Amino acid sequence: MAEAAGGRWRHFDHTGDVGIDAEAPDLDSLFACCASALFDVLAGPGPWIPSAARSLAIDAADREILLQRWLRELLYLHDADRWIFCGFEVKVEGREGGGWRLEGTARGEKFDPSRHRLRTEIKAVTYHQLSVRLDSEGTWRARVIFDI
Predict the structure, then answer these.
(1) Whole-number Å distance between alpha carbons of 110 and 77
(2) What letter does residue 4 receive in the DSSP assignment?
(3) What is the phi/psi pair of residue 94, to 5°?
(4) Side by side, which strands form the sheet with 52-60?
(5) What confidence tens digit (pLDDT) does each residue in 36-79 have?
(6) Comparing 116 with 140, which gets the higher pLDDT?
(7) What is the spatial distance between Cα 134 and Cα 115, in angstroms, rounded to a whole number?
(8) According to the model, what pLDDT value does residue 113 have?
(9) Cα angle 63-45-86, degrees, rounded to a multiple of 5
(10) Alpha carbons 130 and 32: distance in angstroms, whole number
């Protein structure tokens, strides 16, 4: 397993896609770890320079949709604005009355073809087998599959 953002993750192959299984001691680290894994699939381990930051705020009805929207927004910033992110600060909170909110910062740099190579094109963050759960030992676990 690779380590990132206070958690650990591993890739797994899925028919025509690639997935990640991640684990961390808390939700904040789990969401940051999944973001690190997304950019590892896209562009590898770097070296990346965290020279700029983007702030994001995302709401969702449940943790799974929140994770999907978080990763989808990061993927959009990569596709539309050519960001390569390498550092993440995330705060995930349950909302009074229901639902979840994420406030986060992604640090990175713009893609430079003279310095960077992309490994895998990710078309989407899917809902297939998407999960976020707390196991019996108190470890947070997530599974995400990317459409490639």
Answers:
(1) 10
(2) E
(3) -75, 145
(4) 52-60, 100-110, 83-94
(5) 999 999 998 778 889 999 999 999 999 999 999 999 999 999 99
(6) 140
(7) 39
(8) 87
(9) 55
(10) 16
> Could you list the residue range(s) of the whole structural domain that residue 28 is in?
2-132+139-147
Q: Long-range CB contacts (< 8 A, 24+ apart) of 127-132?
A: 127/64, 127/68, 128/14, 128/17, 129/14, 129/19, 130/64, 130/67, 130/68, 131/64, 132/27, 132/30, 132/63, 132/64, 132/66, 132/67
Provide mean pLDDT across the span 90-108. Answer: 95
The domain tally of the chain equals 1
- Specify the higher pLDDT residue, 4 or 105: 105
CA distance 119 to 104: 25
Give the CATH number for residue 29: 3.55.10.10
Rounded CA separation 30/7 (Å): 6
Which has the closest alpha carbon to 42: 135, 125, 129?
125
> Looking at per-residue confidence, does 136 or 112 come out higher?
136
Query: Six-digit token pair at 65?
Result: 């949709």
Assessment of whether the complete model's pTM goes beyond 0.85: yes
Predicted confidence at residue 41, as pLDDT, reads 94
